[in-house]
Amino acid sequence: MSFPNIAYGTPRKLPKASSLQGRVAVLDIAFATNAGGASFEKTTLPFIRHLGDRLAMWIDHHDHERHVDYADDPRFILATKQEHGACPEMVTEERVAAAGVVDTVCCHVDFDGLCAAAKFIRGGLEPYEGADADAYAIDTRLGRPSPRGSILDRALRGRWRDDGMRGLMVRYLVDGAQDRELLRVFESASDEFGAMESESRRLASRYVVDDDIAVCDARVREHRYDKTALLLMGQELARISLVHDESTVTVAARFDSGVDLIAALGLTGGMPTRVSVAAKKLPEVMIALRAIPSD
């Protein structure tokens, strides 16, 4: 199989369209919300316009009110998180074939995005049996991934700025997850995540529960921490967990909670059960969360 160029992006930080070669497939990258200085108009829309006819396909599973703008464009396969808990399950053989020749795959930086990229390169075939289920468990935090899926997820979270390792992981998955030497590399990176996880557990002792909202002040800490792990620990104490540090307020609820944080905070687009805004907005965030109905 031919191996395309790989690029990485997030809703708030997309690569320059001019830097992407040829026809481009975008996978697991949500349309930007109006939180944190980004927005659909400032970030996503210019990227789409600059790609123009070079955009082969955009597959994503994060809620956004601007999805309707592309309902009649067959290149856009857009769903909500409730419809598809993870992106790889949306990457099918039929959709890959419909995309045609793709020179660059631009994907999100987490396991969900890398697995979707590998599956796309493999023509819609899972990198290994159960990879789709692992992506679902990891992205929704419902259920447990396989031991292999857990190693890959923890490796990415332990080296979250390491594009080189992401490239190795895409190769590993495209090749059917058979390379034992590469797996050992990911196991080593997974072990490094342990220190971040320990710091998360230490910070979790600071949670204060107020009106079924678990609030953790993470401004003072001894080590890098994993925000997802810390938020999950808060959700064991209350329906909604909130972590704030020197730059950001992040709020989360269980994937199946029915809580819509986007609506509660007056934002547009994005995942309804996890939201990040600037640290200075903590007081107004708390007011909005207390107004969410208990049922």
Question: Could you state the oligomeric state of the chains shown?
Answer: single chain
Query: Any idea how many domains?
Result: 2
Number of helices: 10
Beta content comes to 15-25%
The helix fraction, in percent, is 25-40%
* Overall radius of gyration: 19 Å
Spatial strand sequence of the major β-sheet: 1-5-2-3-4
Structural commentary:
This protein has 295 residues and is of the alpha/beta class. The protein has two domains: 5-190, no CATH class; 202-290, Roll (Diaminopimelate Epimerase, Chain A, domain 1), CATH 3.10.310.30. Helices cover 38% and strands 15% of the residues. It has helices at 40-51, 93-99, 111-121, 131-140, 147-158, 163-174, 180-204, 227-235, 261-264, 282-290; strands spanning 5-8, 24-27, 55-60, 76-78, 104-107, 208-210, 213-217, 240-244, 248-253, 274-278. The strands form two sheets. The chain has a five-stranded parallel beta sheet, with helices on one face. Strands 6-7-8-9-10 form a five-stranded mixed beta sheet, with helices on both faces. The mean pLDDT is 95.
Keywords:
295 residues, alpha/beta, Diaminopimelate Epimerase, Chain A, domain 1, 2 domains, five-stranded parallel beta sheet, five-stranded mixed beta sheet, 10 helices
Describe, in short, the structure shown.
The chain is an alpha/beta fold.
